Amino acid sequence: MRYAFFPGCVLDGAASEAREATVKVARALDIELVELPGWTCCGASHAQDVDELAALAVNARNLALAERLGLPLLTACSTCTLMLRKAKAALDGGLKDKVNKLLAAAGISYAGTATVTHLLWALVGDYGLDRLRARATRPLAGLKVAGYYGCHILRPPQVMDFEDHARPRSLAALIAALGAEPVELASARRCCGFHAVFPAERDAFKMTGAINADALAAGADCVVTPCPLCQMQLDMRQREGKAATGTAGDMPVLHLAQLVGLALGMTGGELGLGRHVTPADHLAAKVGGR
């Protein structure tokens, strides 16, 4: 398996532990990630609000760069996946020629052959859960994990069409394949509030706190999410979320690759668990690691 890897800005900076875990996990699973040369920010829905055509051209260029490599484009960020897939839908829906005129100045064009996937989808759909289960050298027995999807990896369903957006099962299936116990989370598909912090801080922190409170009430040892923005909001803003909802108790929040890495026998240090704001490095010891 070989992919053009689009790290995106968050994995390249604030959530560098997610990038490192993704690369280590891919290597351990014999998945080759070829970093997309010259990639640029997807806009993260903010650039799209300012200049929709410019943001479309930026992502058309990212897609065209993947076409040059002849590889499917893979991200480990739900928002990057959504922006790139929305761009592809718009280009394939009739804007390709218009945008290619803009890209001509850079000597590149989008042909329409690019495909975009997410790490979660690649592991579940391409790699396969039976194969992943067989590679789990340290099954996560005794660990209760709440899978949190957030918004962007599920909606809009006509763009993010990997699974039933109203009843997603991929995270629970992956958690079980790693030997952990999936914990149902009533708020698994609700927004974490990340993109609403600046315009509606109070409401955003209530949303954040409600998800962590839900995981605490369900008896989870940790939450795992396929989106680094959701991870940052649920981890970094956990203190504000607890204050907004009157909740006590910490809830570790892991990136998807970190949970997979634990099952592959990696240490908490290798996976960057100690870099989280809410303590998470004790989880490695709980599953028999360090």
Question: How would you characterize the overall build of this protein?
Answer:
There is one protein chain. With 290 residues, this protein is an alpha/beta fold. The chain is built from 14 helices and eight strands. It has helices at residues 8-12, 16-28, 46-50, 52-69, 78-103, 119-127, 129-135, 170-177, 201-217, 228-236, 238-245, 256-263, 268-271, 282-286; strands at residues 2-5, 32-35, 73-75, 116-118, 144-147, 181-183, 222-225, 253-255. The strands form two sheets. A four-stranded parallel β-sheet has the order 2-1-3-4, sandwiched between helices. Strands 6-5-7-8 form a four-stranded parallel β-sheet, with helices on both faces. Helix 8 links the parallel strand 5 (144-147) and strand 6. The longest helix has 26 residues, at 78-103. It is globular, with a radius of gyration of 19 Å. The two termini are 30 Å apart. The model has no long low-confidence stretch (mean pLDDT 95).
Topology, pairings included?
Blueprint: E1 2-5, H1 8-12, H2 16-28, E2 32-35, H3 46-50, H4 52-69, E3 73-75, H5 78-103, E4 116-118, H6 119-127, H7 129-135, E5 144-147, H8 170-177, E6 181-183, H9 201-217, E7 222-225, H10 228-236, H11 238-245, E8 253-255, H12 256-263, H13 268-271, H14 282-286
Parallel strand pairs: 1-2, 1-3, 3-4, 5-6, 5-7, 7-8
Helix pairs in contact: 2-12, 4-5, 6-8, 9-11
Organism: Anaeroselena agilis
InterPro entries: Cys_rich_dom, HdrB/HdrD_reductase
Protein name: CoB--CoM heterodisulfide reductase iron-sulfur subunit B family protein
